[in-house]
Amino acid sequence: MLTEKFEQLRALFQEMEQALIAYSGGVDSTLVAKIAYDALGDRALAVTAVSPSLLPEELEDAKIQAATIGIGHKIVQTHEMENPNYTSNPVNRCYFCKSELHDTLKPLALELGYPYVVDGVNADDLHDYRPGIQAAKERGARSPLAEVGVTKVEVRQLSQQLGLPWWDKPAQPCLSSRFPYGEEITVAKLQRVGRAEIFLRKLGWQNLRVRSEVDTARIELASEQIKEFVLTTDLQKVVFAFQDFGFLYVTLDLEGYRSGKLNQVLNREVLGVKL
């Protein structure tokens, strides 16, 4: 089944003939970039959008991964932080983020002669609350992984089979996802969260989030790592570091890390809103 999906992806890109990939450096869009490059060569281009919501380390990873694949790589700036519809952090914040992204990528693709803009949305994403997917669709973007029915697990399996060393790279959504809906997002807050997560990764903890609510940082780790973290980490050092970053209080989430946790506050009525 996985081999069949892989061949479908290759055929899809061959039919496109040319494609511009919305490339964040995450495992999904990197797999798309790899398959597109193998099918199209220089007729595929990866483009990474840079803004305050992207960690500098993620940009460096994207550069290294693109160079390893061999695909052409271009960097552009996006300006979602100038849009109050985004910074006010409503439940459909991602709609305005992806609108800005694709309003930037689509004209670029047309200017450079690429008829298609594709992204890394996978089949599992279609079952979560992802208002950004609608924004991308409205602007004509295609999602090859979702079209072929490739799940997140299959993304990692395919990446491993293709020899991509980052096949098990933890998911790293934009830093704005660390804030509860309704709390204003600022550049200073994004930088504070980013520095806190980098600090913990340098201590050896990888699959994590630092959620921010006003002046409180809430550390989320894999549930099986919580005990080890408490027993082996200099907690006072962590508190002092986070306070230096600008937080007043530092807490540890006893439930553990769970992707999309902040969406649990949304009720069915909100999730049913058509954007």
UniProtKB/TrEMBL annotation:
Which segments constitute the NAD/GMP synthase domain? 17-79
The UniProt keyword set, sorted, is: Transferase
**Pfam families per UniProt:** NAD_synthase
Checking CDD domains in the record gives:
LarE-like
Q: Which GO terms fall under molecular function for this chain's record? A: transferase activity
The membrane spanning regions, by residue number, are none
Q: PANTHER family annotated for this entry?
A: EXSB FAMILY PROTEIN (PTHR43169), NAD_GMP SYNTHASE DOMAIN-CONTAINING PROTEIN (PTHR43169:SF2)
> What is this protein identified as?
ATP-dependent sacrificial sulfur transferase LarE
